[in-house]
Amino acid sequence: MGAVASRSRRSVLAVPGSNPRFLEKARGLPVDAFFLDLEDAVAPLEKEKARDTVVAALNEGGWDGKVRAVRVNDLGTRWTYRDVIAVVEGAGAELDCLVLPKVTDPAHVRWLDLLLTQIEKAVGLEAGRIGIEAQIEDARGLVRVDEIAAASPRLESLVYGPADFMASINMKTLVVGEQPPGYDVGDAYHHVLMRILMAARANDLQAIDGPYLQVRDVSAFTRSARRTAALGYDGKWVLHPGQVDAANEVFSPTQDDYDHAELILDAYQHATTVQRRGAVMLGDEMLDEASRKMALVVAAKGRAAGL
Ligand code: GLV
Ligand code: MG
């Protein structure tokens, strides 16, 4: 994984950009990352005012090492370009990423990349510092996900948007993240999740799972998060304080797995350098170079989680 893509995003808090009370509360939560939303959590009549609220919240600071992002409106609306200009001119030095929703075409990402480059030059920000996270939220985005994932060096992650996605394909359910009733032959989301994950990994990007909307049901959230964590996803959006600890835990390795990974790395290092062997036994387990790569992933996530 590239250097930027290694920023921790186990828990990514969605914060409506028009609500100063939520913005204040968000500061105190132990999330890895957050985004201040100008899109679907903000009513059309509040869109313009929300830009000022979001800029002020970023400039006030107090975000304590979290990855700071803003979600702008999608390119099918009239708001997007002004969102980008207002936020980056107003608070570019306090911003790590922009989240672009409903990406259906690599040109959307290239457009944002170019606009960011222009604004960085105009206001004297470090070139290329602001990253992009692209939401894949419908059938059009999914069928072009490989091109989208390769569209800009600013890209840091692909984010699955389950609510919009389920609407876009006419899935016969209203419960976001749960299996649609009547489909009892497997996981209805497997193809979509894997497709996004493959495009992300092939381009050294993170893959982030979207929200779980039944916010009071933490055990259902945890079950849903475990599924994407098991596939290899790096984190999940959280909408409620009750979901934060679960996300941080599910997307970190267990202490046992972390300790085991460090053991594999030590044993394999010793085997290849001192014993000059490419394969070695650790207890009952045969280790080779592929074992080292798997252990590196777990160890890196464990170190980032402070294990
Ligand atoms: C998130 O944006 C979603 O549509 O689920
Ligand atoms: Mg959406």
TrEMBL record:
Swiss-Prot/TrEMBL cofactor(s): Mg(2+)
The HpcH/HpaI aldolase/citrate lyase domain, residue ranges: 10-241
The residues forming a coiled coil are: none
Q: Which residues bind substrate?
A: R71, E137
Q: Which UniProt keywords apply?
A: Lyase, Magnesium, Metal-binding
Residues reported to bind Mg(2+): E137, D164
Q: Which GO terms describe its molecular function?
A: lyase activity; magnesium ion binding
Lyase keyword on record: yes
Give GO BP annotations, semicolon-separated. Answer: oxaloacetate metabolic process
Q: What is this protein called?
A: CoA ester lyase
Organism, scientific name: Marinitenerispora sediminis
Q: Organism classification, top ranks?
A: Bacteria, Bacillati, Actinomycetota, Actinomycetes, Streptosporangiales
